Amino acid sequence: MDFSLKPIPVLLVDDQEITGYVLNKMISEEFQGDFVLHSIHNPHAALSKAQETAPAVILLDLVMPEMDGLTLLHQFRRHPGFIDTPIIMLSSQEESFFKAKAFEMGANDYLVKLPEKIELMARLRYYAQAYYNLLQIRESHRILKEKELQFRIVTESILEAIVAADLNGTIRFWNQGAATLFGYGRDAILGQQVDRLIAPRFNAEFKQCFTALMAKGTLTQCEVREWLGVHQDGREFPMEISINSWTEEGQTLIASVIRDITQRKKEEDRIRYQANYDLLTDLPNRHYFMQRLDESISLAHRQGVSFSLLFIDLDRFKWVNDTLGHDAGDLLLQQVTQRMKHCIRTTDTLGRLGGDEFTAILYDINPFGTKIVARKILDELSKPFMLQARQVQISASIGVTLYPEDNENKESLLKNADVAMYVAKTAGKNRYWFFNPVEN
Predict the structure, then answer these.
(1) What are the C-alpha distances in Å from 33 to residues 36, 65, 99, 259, 435?
(2) Which domain covers residue 200, as residue numbers?
(3) Are 289 and 194 contained in the same domain?
(4) What is the pLDDT of residues 32-69, one digit of tens each?
(5) Are residues 245 and 310 in the same domain?
(6) 207, pLDDT greater than 80
């Protein structure tokens, strides 16, 4: 992260010392000195601490004994030094009322504490970057208003794209960064309408925004928007636009600092992927599979259909790991995944809970059809696997439970399938077993 200030200060206001300890450990492990966490446990001293540390992001506890977080949030937003400082509310309460109230009073985000490490890190990266970008834009704006010559020197020396348009939407200036970003010659775009740089499906939204800016005539603070830009060759790309304005010789210009955020979007997609998928097998992980199970229950209830939940445990997987090593075990899990994918329909869901435990949702199917699929999985997994030039033979034990016959609760369904799997394993492995509440 290319910030001018390192380490980047983050302020935590929380009456519980353990919160500061855990978050400080997360930040120190992940950022290795790029960020520093300042903690204050007395909310009455939070403003003074913020003035002392000048945080790029404030983490603010919602519930504190001496002063609630919403009151302190209001104080921060009234203070001229912290009007735009990103503030993330932390709370063990997930009620929509508190979220709505926090956002209404100027909070930027809302996390349930203690948050997952990957989620907290993504938020800090994003908001710290956005905050320093805002400060840089404001400082640039102040300098640009002082001297036109300095304006041109600065804009031509930075890599980011800068486009300035009048209140009619006509482009009056853009720098080399903009010419490079959009692929036009330096003078080819001057005098054209600025909305030609925006993807057509966003034109109405862009024009509405621009009309609002025209009505104001001038901006009191920077506005940041995300749209799809259009390259000269027709290629679309995600971009972030920081909009500001200034008046030169009686003419108001709307200036946009534009960044290609393709890499940031890819990083956000990667974070979302890691949060929902098992990296080894590319299957839904436990968290995402349980969401899919929830969705299947809701959909099956609405449509009045049944589905089967399978709990699949590999036999002799520990032997493979202990004998051939974990690399061979990982390769086996990947090959097992591919074989099982060929046994189910595209409308079904296959997931990995962890280790050698897999689950599958067979949607809109009867017990007879479920037996066919379970038998097919067992037959496929009984065939030899080639691992590091060595032939390996394994099998699987499958537990089956039915919705809604056995239960309508996702945790109970998963437990039923798990119990049935252990019965299958105890009965000799390499077989499937349907959950029976009387026997089990």
Answers:
(1) 7, 32, 31, 27, 53
(2) 147-264
(3) no
(4) 678 888 989 888 998 999 999 999 999 998 888 878 88
(5) no
(6) no
> Which residues are within 8 A (CB) of 403 and not within 5 positions of it... i.e. 6 or more apart?
296, 297, 300, 306, 307, 308, 309, 413
pLDDT (tens digit, 9 = 90+) per residue, 255-277?
Answer: 788 888 889 889 988 888 988 99
Domain tally for the chain? 3
| Contact present, 132 and 4 (Cβ < 8 Å) | yes
Residues 179 and 65 in one domain: no
Task: Say how far apart CA 113 and CA 179 lie, in whole Å.
Answer: 45
- Which tokens sit at 264? 């940031």
Does residue 376 sit in the same domain as residue 412? Answer: yes
Residue 252 burial (C-beta neighbours within 10 Å; 0-12, 13-18, 19+): middle
Task: State which amino acid sits at residue 411.
Answer: E
What are 100's two structure tokens?
Answer: 């709505």
Pair type for strands 87-91 and 57-61: parallel
Give residue-wise pLDDT tens across range 320-359: 999 999 999 999 999 999 999 999 999 999 999 999 999 9
Helix axis angle, 286-303 to 262-276, nearest 10° = 80
What would the two tokens of residue 42 be?
């007395």
One-letter amino acid of 330 = D
By three-state DSSP, how is residue 123 classified? helix
- 422 and 400: one domain? yes
